[in-house]
Amino acid sequence: MDPEVRKRTLRLITYGLYVLTAADGEEIAAGTINWLSQASFQPPLVMVGIKKDSHLHALIERTGKFAVNILGAGQKEIASAFFRPTQVAEGKLNGYPFEWGPRTGAPLLVDLPAWFEAQVTDAVRRGDHTVFVAEVIEAGLRDPEARPLVMWDTGWFYGG
Ligand SMILES: Cc1cc2nc3c(=O)[nH]c(=O)nc-3n(C[C@H](O)[C@H](O)[C@H](O)COP(=O)(O)O)c2cc1C
């Protein structure tokens, strides 16, 4: 296999962008991710690929829960804020207001158009990321008119 062709081919997979959060009490992890897809209708399952050495990974392993905040089309700047280390100050997460998820206790960013909470059912631990399969247990739509932020439109890549 030609590694350059592999990289360019895998980078043609289409993605959205999401701020994933997890919490164990006051301890919070948050990060912008793109490796996420729905994986079943009944039960409603999603799958996410999470970097093994991240704080997010540690908290998802520990609590078995996470929340997904779906970024809107104009929210590239918010996405960038969650590539940086997670900080809570003055009731804000990396500078953005949040509330606690009703089912998971994970932060929900109130400026983002939609969110869901999920409970981990399975984990595939292979390579440098773990694939968590999780059941969607709660969801909220703050802005029904919003369109999602699409990875291709940002010029960023995470894949290859
Ligand atoms: C464009 C882009 C996409 C990313 N997608 C993922 C992803 O799908 N999964 C993941 O675990 N990390 C992804 N990351 C890295 C996370 O944003 C980063 O690990 C996260 O901020 C968590 O860091 P921490 O928990 O160690 O503080 C991506 C980074 C960039 C720049």
Describe the structure.
There is one protein chain. This protein is an alpha+beta fold and 160 residues long. The chain has one domain: Pnp Oxidase, Chain A. The chain has 4 helices and 11 strands, in the order αββββαβαββββββα. The strands form 2 sheets. Strands 2-1-5-10-11-4-3 form a 7-stranded antiparallel β-sheet. A 4-stranded antiparallel β-sheet has the order 6-7-8-9, with no helix packed on it. It binds flavin mononucleotide. Flavin mononucleotide binds next to β2, β4 and α2.
Task: Looking at this protein, list some descriptive labels.
Pnp Oxidase, Chain A; 44% strand; four-stranded antiparallel beta sheet; 11 strands; alpha+beta; 160 residues; seven-stranded antiparallel beta sheet; binds flavin mononucleotide
In short, what is this structure?
By secondary structure, the protein is an alpha+beta fold. It is 17% helix and 44% strand.
In CATH, the homologous superfamily goes by the name: Electron Transport, Fmn-binding Protein, Chain A
> Secondary-structure element order, as H and E?
HEEEEHEHEEEEEEH
CATH topology: Pnp Oxidase, Chain A
Helix fraction by DSSP (H/I, runs of at least 4): 10-25%
> Can you give the mean pLDDT?
97
How many strand elements?
A: 11
Number of self-contained structural domains: 1
Q: Treating each run of at least 4 consecutive H or I residues as one helix, how many helices? A: 4
Per-chain topology:
Elements: H1 3-10, E1 18-24, E2 27-33, E3 36-40, E4 45-51, H2 55-63, E5 65-70, H3 76-81, E6 88-89, E7 92-93, E8 96-100, E9 107-109, E10 114-126, E11 129-141, H4 151-154
Antiparallel strand pairs: 1-2, 1-5, 3-4, 4-11, 5-10, 6-7, 7-8, 8-9, 10-11
Bound molecules: flavin mononucleotide.
Flavin mononucleotide is lined by residues 29, 31-35, 49-51, 54-56, 82-83, 85-86, 129, 156, 158.
